Please model this.
Amino acid sequence: KLRHGAMQYVPVGVLVGTVLLLELFIAFFKWSDIKQSIPASSSPTSGPNLTNTEAIGQVLYTQYVYPFQAAGIILFIAMIGAIVLTLRTRPGVKRQKVAVQNERRPEDAMEILKVPSESQG
Model:
């Protein structure tokens, strides 16, 4: 019952996976070409006007590009997993219905009763 209708999403998943792998292969081969063409003198500390942010960016996008990409993919998968786990419906669990709450009128929500006091008895 949980997997009913899941096969309709397989082509989209295969397409997204293929595009992702293609981008990773292109990035790997282009990166190796770029890495060979970078002179050894261009280190993150080169240049007198280099800020901390620029130095971190240079190190992150040159020496640690693959771990950075892997961390991004892991966080993306975790985010998708959290969304999927939260949106599934379970029997017996009450959910908020915003449309019903917005359509609610004061006349439907409360009833005015005239309660007799002790003196009216």
Summary: The chain has a mean pLDDT of 82. Helices lie at 10-37, 52-62, 65-87, 98-103, 106-109.
